[in-house]
Design a protein that fits this description.
This is Phospholipid/glycerol acyltransferase domain-containing protein. InterPro entries: GPAT/DHAPAT, GPAT/DHAPAT_C, GPAT/DHAPAT_LPLAT, Plipid/glycerol_acylTrfase. Keywords: Acyltransferase, Membrane, Transferase. Helix content is 50%, strand content 9%. With 743 residues, it is α/β, with parallel strands linked by helices. The chain has three domains: 68-150 and 216-359 and 366-404 and 427-447, Glycerol-3-phosphate (1)-acyltransferase (3-Layer(aba) Sandwich), CATH 3.40.1130; 452-556, no CATH class; 560-732, no CATH class. The strands form four sheets. Strands 2, 3, 4, 5, 6, 7, 8, 9 and 10 form a nine-stranded mixed beta sheet that branches. Strands 1-13-11 form a three-stranded parallel beta sheet. A three-stranded antiparallel beta sheet has the order 12-15-14. Strand 17 (627-630) and strand 18 (634-637) form a beta hairpin. The relative contact order is 0.08.
């Protein structure tokens, strides 16, 4: 943990305010990926330089790249998989081709630098207006530069090795012929770079896949904006088809690399095949980097949405499993917003208000936000995940677990022309599916490890620690910040030592108060005694939405405390009677499984009760005197630290009691559709909504209801339902009785 150090970041807002946005948008584009019409003199010189076999990654590889939109569509439509699907569906060839052409036309992007320049200028104006700072991680950008550069810097870590494949070998041979026919350049020496056979270069251009968090509509724009800023290839972005309702803006986004896909198309085999081929042709040919959101949709809660959506990731991984590419480079990106543009919409949607459709009229209404300040945006890049290395490591670990000697080229599943939708069960081997599951969890774990803590997070913790906390002093905020992020770094850094705190002038009370009042003027106001108080109106739904916003901002850091806080929570719930070591461990693992969809842990949750972290967390709480060990391996909480313990455990206690409240509702046993179940439960809970009770508000969230219901094993739902309710009631019986009487 550390405070944000501005010297480790580029501030795009400060830079742009000191220069002309129009001149910046019209700057010379130096990267040789783009077509000759857009290439600068410098790019042309780079392409014409002598290519050396010792530097396989050179601009020469991009002479015929990238394919334009029409070429990509042509390749997709003429792929064997699409033709096979049309034949297998018994569609008349001409009619099937027309259907496929219409789908491809609707889906495809038309990425071009001219539109990128126009949108860069527009969004430079917007960003300068609504954000105080946009910080970009130096280290992350350096890593991306290294992937595209001719000469990796000595300070950078060595690139992982990749397998030598037929495609890469052929490319090396062709590259050699290209070198012999190219004009010589006396300034280039054969000793400039080491041989790729001794260094760990890739033999083809890097297949980069960007995987950002998804909290706001701004996520679609910011990475393309950054790529334009830093002169690196702009990505193709997977966007929902809903955005086609934005008219002109949808066309602009398409021309900036967005390709539009339906939210659900499992039953449409032709659409699935075209989507699958469209993604794969980008990965295999290396035209552009790909950007998609592994959560599938915006997280209204500012927490990672679990389980992650693996469809697009599987399409990319299949290219590697088929040995169609040497490697894939996955780059998780965490976009940290001090204030999310749509936080009002998020809160309302969680309380059951339908999501407004993307439309031109809605876009015009949203223009009002340009008058507000949304603080900082901090973009942080994770260390790249090299799929080849990750898979090799997975196979080694898997071999140790099973004590079997795996086949290094295990391809027992036929890699036929059939898309996964036709032979879904046989698409990946069991090992490949387990690897995909682990890789997916690793990606979201990397997202969470780069969290930035803003003052609103601490304020939300403080205001929500008790139901009657409606006024808080600035001194109390500083005390709670110390308790959460300074006194207990031993447990928070166990999840990640890379999270950072963005705070106004260190412990300067007036700056802190003014920032909260300025950015969150819809949430806080200042009283005569200089305390912050919530802007409660007396309207039940409006007040619930305000409290929901606080829940949302508190969520941003709960993953740091989740597992260690479970130990404190169990001891606190049994504060009248000491709890045994066995009981404490049992409830600790129960809470891990209960909240498996709610929080991202440091590693994938399993049923293994020999969790070594348990003893480490327990030792920490004993060391700081929050828990007192008694005789015969029993423990109790230290009453002298009850306030600090309550601050840490209150979020998880509220979630547990919210789950219990959900499970106490009448269960519609005849309904099995999860979406309908969520609506049934939410309607019942909203009818009893009480804004003086935080648990009532939290339990009314559609996301909490969804996660609570997903936790149930639907194959044995009645038994799981009874067991979960029984354990929660045993743990939180007193409050359960009060809630039942009140609600």
């Amino acid at each position: 943990m550390s405070l944000i150090n501005p010297t480790e970041f580029d501030d795009l807002i400060t830079r742009h305010r000191q220069s002309s946005d129009i001149l910046w948008a019209l700057k010379t584009w130096h990267h040789p990926v783009f077509d000759n019409k857009e290439q600068s003199i410098k790019s042309t010189q780079l392409i014409n330089k002598t290519t050396q076999i010792s530097s396989i990654i050179t601009p020469v590889h991009y002479k015929t790249l990238p394919r334009n939109s029409e070429q990509i569509k042509f390749d997709v439509l003429n792929s064997l998989a699409v033709k096979h699907t049309i034949d297998s569906l018994n569609i008349e060839t001409a009619h099937g081709y027309d259907q496929a052409k219409a789908i491809t036309q609707e889906m495809s992007h038309r990425l071009n630098i001219r539109t990128a320049r126009f949108l860069a200028f527009i969004f430079a104006k917007i960003f300068n207006q609504v954000y105080d700072n946009i910080y970009i991680d130096h280290h992350g950008m350096d890593l991306i530069y290294q992937m595209y550069s001719l000469t990796p810097r000595n300070s950078s870590p060595a690139l992982p090795s990749s397998p030598i494949t037929i495609s890469s070998t052929l490319f090396a041979i062709l590259n050699t012929f290209s070198r012999s026919s190219s004009p010589s350049d006396d300034n280039l020496s054969m000793n400039t770079l080491p041989s790729p056979l001794t260094s760990k270069h890739y033999l083809t251009s890097p297949r980069i896949i960007y995987l950002p968090t998804h909290r706001s509509y701004m996520d679609f724009i910011i990475l393309t904006y950054i790529c334009f800023e830093y002169n690196i290839p702009m990505p193709c972005i997977a966007a929902a088809q809903d955005f086609l309702g934005l008219g002109l803006l949808a066309n602009l986004l398409r021309n900036c690399g967005a390709f539009f896909i339906r939210r659900s198309f499992r039953s449409d085999l032709l659409y699935w095949t075209i989507f699958d081929e469209y993604v794969k042709t980008h990965v295999i040919n290396g035209d552009y980097p790909i950007e998609f959101f592994i959560e599938g949709t915006r997280s209204r809660t500012l927490k990672t949405l679990l389980p992650v959506r693996q469809g697009m990731l599987k399409s990319c991984l299949e290219c590697y499993f088929r040995r169609q590419v040497d490697n894939l480079i996955l780059i998780p990106i965490t976009i940290n917003y001090e204030k999310v543009l749509e936080d009002n919409l998020h809160a309302n949607e969680l309380l059951g208000v339908p999501k407004p459709k993307e439309s031109k009229g809605g876009l015009l209404k949203a223009a009002q936000i340009l008058k507000k300040s949304f603080g900082k945006m901090i973009v942080r890049f994770s260390e790249p995940i090299y799929v080849h290395d990750a898979y090799e490591m997975f196979k080694l670990n898997d071999e140790k677990r099973t004590n079997d000697q795996p086949d290094a080229f295990n391809r027992s599943v036929p890699r036929t022309l059939q898309p996964r939708s036709i032979c879904q069960q046989d698409a990946f081997t069991d090992a490949e599916q387990r690897f995909t599951d682990e890789l997916s969890y690793r990606i979201v774990n990397e997202h969470q490890s780069l969290t930035v803590i803003y003052p609103i997070t601490v304020a939300a913790f403080t205001f929500l620690s008790t139901s009657n906390n409606r006024s808080v002093s600035i001194d109390q905020l500083l005390t709670d910040k110390k308790t959460l992020f300074l006194d207990n770094t031993g447990v928070t850094e166990h999840f990640s030592s890379h999270y950072q705190i963005s705070w106004p002038v260190e412990n300067e009370r007036n700056c802190l108060k003014q920032r909260l009042l300025t950015i969150y003027s819809d949430v806080f106001e200042c009283t005569e005694n200089n305390h912050l108080t919530l802007k409660m109106t007396g309207d039940r739904f409006v007040d619930a939405a305000l409290l929901m916003k606080l829940f949302i901002y508190r969520n941003t850091c709960l993953h740091l405390f989740a597992k260690p806080a479970y130990i404190l929570l169990v001891c606190q719930a049994n504060s009248q009677v000491p709890i045994s070591h066995e009981q404490l461990r049992m409830y600790y693992h129960f809470l891990i499984q209960l909240f498996a969809y709610e929080f991202v842990y440091d590693r994938f949750p399993t049923d293994d009760l020999n969790d070594k972290d348990f003893d480490q967390y327990l030792s920490h709480w004993i060391k700081v005197n929050y828990i007192i060990p008694l005789n015969n391996s029993t423990y109790k909480v230290n009453s002298q630290f009850r306030q600090q313990i309550s601050l840490i455990t209150s979020p998880f206690e509220q979630y547990a009691r919210a789950y219990l409240l959900i499970y106490e509702q009448e269960y519609p046993s005849s309904e099995t559709n999860l979406s309908l179940l969520i609506k049934i439960y939410q309607k019942a809970l909203l009818s009893k909504l009480d804004t003086t009770n935080l648990i009532s508000v939290l339990a009314s969230s559609s996301n909490v209801i969804s996660n609570a219901l997903r936790t149930l094993n639907f194959n044995t739902k009645s038994k799981a339902y009874v067991d979960l309710r029984h354990l929660l009631t045993n743990l939180f019986q007193p409050m359960s009785t009060q809630l039942r009487a009140k609600l």
